[in-house]
Amino acid sequence: MIDACTPKSKPLLTINEALEKIRLAIQPITQSETVPLNTALGRILAEPIYSPINLPFDRNSAMDGYAFASNDKPEQGTFFLECVGTSWAGKPFVGQLQIGQCVRIFTGAVLPPETDSVIMQENVQIDGNRIVFPEESAIHDNVRHVGEDVQQGSCLIAPPKKLTVSDISLLASAGVAQVLVKRTLTVAFFSTGDELVTLDQPLSTGKIYDSNRYTLQGLLADVNISATDLGIIPDDKQLLEDSLVAAAKNFDVVITTGGASVGEADYVKEILERCGEMNFWKIAIKPGKPLAFGKIGTRYFFGLPGNPVSVMATFQQIVAPALRQLAGESPSKALRITATCTSLLKKAAGRQEFQRGILTQDDNGDFFVVSSGAQGSNILSTLSKANCYIVLPSACTGVKLGDKVIVEPFSLLLGE
């Protein structure tokens, strides 16, 4: 797509080109910190964790039943053994079994060293202390062996894994009480524009409530990010410049909304070119064409559009991957699925579009998507109704009823 708003028209960057420029420009943080395991969920691991113990630590039973020695099982026929005690979980049997003896055992309890098999309690008959075993009793069954899950000294989890609930469970089972993780990113954000007012003020003609800072606060709600709201900056070039420079001294990333377009009061691009480094400005995306990326000193800057839907879309598609890279997380792509579109969708060729849709799945597992309504970049109500983006490539000129489209569910995007 050619940008008709600039004197020297040239093709706008595609999303992939913009993401590649960001990837090459951003250097992940190297600093780390040690945190207790119970606060590590979602943090990004900074070093490998090796198991200090075998898992399981002891040979134990996988079932409630009776532990016995396989040598006590005859080649044919039923047989009985004398039950001489019980091995409880946390309280092992302490005696020594003789030939012809067995012990009652519970799930997770340690097997006596003389035994190597466990039969489920439902498969035996009990006659006082005599336990009658059926002919088909299997040997070496229902036994969890030392280290069969994890060997002592082996790597439990390698960086830069973002720790999940399953990871936390694994680490806890190995007795790991604290982990070294990447430090949190510091991100400052503010809105720009004389038209903006805070929610505690009454509206007057020409004014609008600032929803963008609330949007960004939600989008930045991540354990790897410490976000700071710097409020609203009016359309004053010097004040805006001072605010950007001051923020860049104290935060890893600065994000603004508004002021990145081509109006006379849109100062962000001009200030960034003077005080920092402009990597790119404007990309072939809808909503959200006027998006700036660059640096102020050594800190990264994102200038997002002012329209609220554009803020959401550009953050999720452009800023979120950049923050994950900066935080040291492994690169990943958003899950996209194919769905049948049950709406007519209008689109002009030139920009990749992220239209708001409602995704459903029928009893056969097939996916269907319908437009959530008007697609203007100021229409927040249809964004609230939606649960996905309908991703339309730049060459697309519209979608007919029944066409297959690519869909990106919100639930798998940062901030949803």
From TrEMBL:
The lineage of its organism: Bacteria, Pseudomonadati, Pseudomonadota, Gammaproteobacteria, Methylococcales. GO terms for molecular function: metal ion binding; molybdopterin molybdotransferase activity. This is Molybdopterin molybdenumtransferase. Keywords: Magnesium, Metal-binding, Molybdenum, Molybdenum cofactor biosynthesis, Transferase. Its EC number is 2.10.1.1. Pfam families: MoCF_biosynth, MoeA_C, MoeA_N. It comes from Crenothrix polyspora. InterPro entries: MoaB/Mog-like_dom_sf (IPR036425), MoaB/Mog_dom (IPR001453), MoCF_biosynth_CS (IPR008284), MoeA-like (IPR038987), MoeA_C_domain_IV (IPR005111), MoeA_C_domain_IV_sf (IPR036688), MoeA_linker/N (IPR005110), MoeA_linker/N_sf (IPR036135). Its cofactor is Mg(2+). CDD domains: MoeA (cd00887). Residues 188-325 form the MoaB/Mog domain. NCBIfam families: Glp_gephyrin, molyb_syn. Belongs to the MoeA family. Catalyzes the insertion of molybdate into adenylated molybdopterin with the concomitant release of AMP. Pathway: Cofactor biosynthesis; molybdopterin biosynthesis. It catalyses: adenylyl-molybdopterin + molybdate = Mo-molybdopterin + AMP + H(+). PROSITE patterns: MOCF_BIOSYNTHESIS_2 (PS01079). GO terms for cellular component: cytosol. It comes from the Bacteria.
